[in-house]
Amino acid sequence: MSQILTIADLKDLARRRVPKMFFDYADSGAWTESTYRANEEDFQKIKFRQRVLVDMDNRSLASTMIGEKVSMPVALAPTGMTGMQHADGEMLAAQAAQEFGVPFTLSTMSICSIEDVASATTKPFWFQLYVLRDKDFVFNLIDRAKAAKCSALVLTLDLQILGQRHKDIRNGLSAPPRLTLKNIVDMAIRPRWCAAMAGTKRRTFRNIVGHAKGVGDMASLASWTSEQFDPHLSWNDVAWIKERWGGKLILKGILDKEDALMAVKTGADAIIVSNHGGRQLDGASSSIMALEEIADAVGDTIEVHMDGGIRSGQDVLKALCLGAKGTYIGRPFLYGLGALGKEGVTKALEIIRKEMDITLALCGKRLVTDMGKDQLRR
Ligand SMILES: Cc1cc2nc3c(=O)[nH]c(=O)nc-3n(C[C@H](O)[C@H](O)[C@H](O)COP(=O)(O)O)c2cc1C
């Protein structure tokens, strides 16, 4: 690889360095992947107004998300099995985010545990919660996130049942990978990944193993996880979670304005307009196309964030123009991590920051917080 200038460059390098099973896990969507593709493609339909001869000195990308200062309004999204893109992946990504001044969100389905990430960082991170059937386990997770001083709980609403990703089934995805001949060959040609993985003890779901009743090893973990997503979840559950948590609450996975209005009633601090990166309902609208209607419907009653398909600083600014106060990136930081470890996560953030800064200036704005609908050409 000569120069890394774009998120796509990081993706190319990650494809070479991360075993196929885990690279595919990141780079896939549900079924035909039409929503996954639309998330990226629909950004291209939105155009900026170019303005000239405006004083562009002293620009700033600084903003806030749920009242927390951010160096730019781009958080790292919760992603499962991040510690399989690179050894200790969640700890490295959290450190990179902390140094950059943006929030890191740890997934329930992470490899490194809440406690691992807390020990690797000095500032609060956010924790993403899946509400599973085993409520004792869920209570315990909330309490562990509190004990680790997480400053926000991100409650994911769009995974009551699991969407299907064909690649994961074909690859026989598991963490750690099963030692079939195919997997051994695939890993052997990626010595960098193997060496780093050999040097860590973190190779399975450490938020779960040893914490959920009856889950002590891989076999029990696989059967536990497959039964745990809870189809009974309802809006009433948000109330007890909010109460038990007692801190800032963000509701993730809203794609419809009726649901957004329900979310406002819960008293949550923010919603994330999201279709889970196109990994759940294939055929759903892209996040960027759903954003404006939702932002208009809720107005100032709740903070609106969005994720899905952001691959550049321009994409971030388009989301801000259409009503998002903050955004998240999933795959862009995973590609960075798989390509270059912690340095790659920083690189992904730097690429996006530079693109945001230049785009802001060419739009004739100095402050990222000034980006609004008037900046788009319609
Ligand atoms: C590999 C992968 C794993 C994910 N795991 C989770 C998860 O555990 N919890 C969750 O709420 N969202 C999860 N998501 C969804 C992300 O939080 C986010 O909504 C999505 O990645 C945004 O789209 P983008 O990847 O195009 O930026 C995952 C996404 C990816 C790509």
Automatic annotation (TrEMBL):
Residues 1-378 form the FMN hydroxy acid dehydrogenase domain. GO terms for molecular function: FMN binding; L-lactate dehydrogenase (NAD+) activity. The keyword Flavoprotein applies. Glyoxylate binds at residues 25, 165, 276, 279. GO terms for biological process: aerobic respiration. FMN binds at residues 78-80, 107, 128, 130, 156, 252, 274, 307-311, 330-331. The active site is at residue 276. SUPFAM superfamilies: FMN-linked oxidoreductases. Its cofactor is FMN. The keyword Metal-binding does not apply. Keywords: Flavoprotein, FMN, Oxidoreductase. GO terms for cellular component: plasma membrane. InterPro entries: Aldolase_TIM, Alpha-hydoxy_acid_DH_FMN, FMN-dep_DH, FMN_HAD, FMN_hydac_DH_AS. Belongs to the FMN-dependent alpha-hydroxy acid dehydrogenase family. PANTHER family: 2-HYDROXYACID OXIDASE 1, S -2-HYDROXY-ACID OXIDASE-RELATED. NCBIfam families: PRK11197.1 (NF008398). This is L-lactate dehydrogenase (Cytochrome).
